[in-house]
Write a structure and sequence with these properties.
Length: about 350
């Protein structure tokens, strides 16, 4: 079945849910006593863990319930491991995850498209893992969105990685809640009202802070000027805030008093090389017609608690129902297909 609206849907980001003992079972013996262990999962529990989160056969059935014919897949627990400070352990954890997501996607290679996790403390090791994963068939790669200050995206630390990603035509994703501000293991926070306040501040304010810092560092320091074919993806930060930020960058850059490597307005680099995902961003409906229809990509965030599954079409109708068929097709499937060079999926069926 296609979506209830009769359109093919490709989610530009969905998630798998790893076994909480995944790394205990899969890490090399030298790292096994350091393996991260996560809370037990249960259907309907943490991360809204439907069986398809870890069983690809069940996943395809659950995709059909939502009318989704293809998904670009990100980790759940492994995102926490971008906060590890032990570089060797992080590399081992990511390699084990990347091997597994390849196995998972092999069950339905025309529908499931995995994104690799790339370590970047040692950039040569990161480049090697990027090359290995791309050769194995993973079309995208994930790095931390909030690196340590000494390894910020404004430094030249990542130059070899950016060059390799451009040559390999691998889009680089920057996902919410990844990097130094989100250490693993995470310290226990206070309870009660203070915890609720800090949770909301992190979920809203920090989400935009780290995403906008990454975006401005990559644009304003000339990364996109130096690598004009390199693509970046802002993942799970929603999108309605982006036009405002870009107009501010343009305003200050356009005054001409900055020592800048740029030869275009900052917003023009975004249009040429940035993508961003949305899944439940009501104000975005006001911008889709005027801005970003070639850069924005619909998602359902399955199977996390925020997911629009199994009623994604209700949200699509609310926020995209007023758009032309051409614009809607770009947002719902064509942009993600073009970015990752995905095959045209047939409608998914149970």
């Amino acid at each position: 079945m296609a979506s209830p609206g009769g359109e093919l849907l490709i989610s530009a980001y969905s998630h798998i849910v790893e076994d909480p003992h995944f790394w205990e079972d899969r890490l090399p013996a030298a790292f096994r006593d350091q393996a991260p262990v996560f809370p037990e999962r249960e259907v309907g529990g943490l991360f809204q863990a439907h069986p398809g989160g870890w069983d690809p056969h069940e996943r395809v059935k659950e995709m059909a319930v939502d009318g989704v014919s293809g998904e670009v897949l990100y980790p759940s627990f492994a995102m926490n491991l971008f906060g590890l400070q032990d570089a060797a352990l992080q590399e081992a954890c990511f390699r084990a995850y990347n091997d597994w997501i390849l196995e998972y996607c092999s069950v339905a290679p025309d529908r499931l498209f995995g994104v690799s996790c790339i370590p970047t403390y040692d950039i040569d090791h990161g480049v090697a893992e990027l090359e290995r994963c791309r050769k194995a068939g993973l079309p995208g790669a994930l790095v931390w969105q909030a690196p340590p200050p000494e390894l910020s995206f404004a430094t030249d630390h990542y130059e070899r990685l950016w060059a390799a990603a451009q040559d390999l035509e691998v889009p680089i994703s920057l996902h919410i809640l990844t990097g130094q501000p989100f250490p693993w293991p995470r310290p226990m926070g206070p309870g009660g009202r203070r915890q609720a306040f800090e949770t909301m501040r992190s979920a809203v304010n920090d989400k935009l802070l780290y995403a906008s810092n990454a975006m401005s560092d990559l644009i304003m320091t000339g990364v996109l000027e130096r690598y004009p074919r390199l693509k970046f993806v802002l993942v799970e930060n929603e999108v309605s805030w982006i036009p405002f930020y870009l107009t501010q960058y343009d305003k200050y850059w356009g005054r001409g008093n900055l020592d800048s490597p740029l030869t275009m307005f900052p917003s023009e680099y975004f249009v040429r090389q940035f993508y961003a995902t949305f899944f439940n961003d009501p104000p975005a409906r006001w911008i889709f017609d005027a801005w970003g229809s070639n850069n924005l990509m619909w998602s359902n965030d399955y199977p996390h608690p925020n997911s629009t599954w199994p009623k994604s079409w209700d949200v699509i109708t609310r926020d995209l129902g007023h758009l032309s068929e051409e614009t809607r097709s770009r947002l719902l499937r064509e942009n993600v297909r073009q970015l990752y060079k995905l095959p045209a999926p047939t409608p998914v069926a149970v």
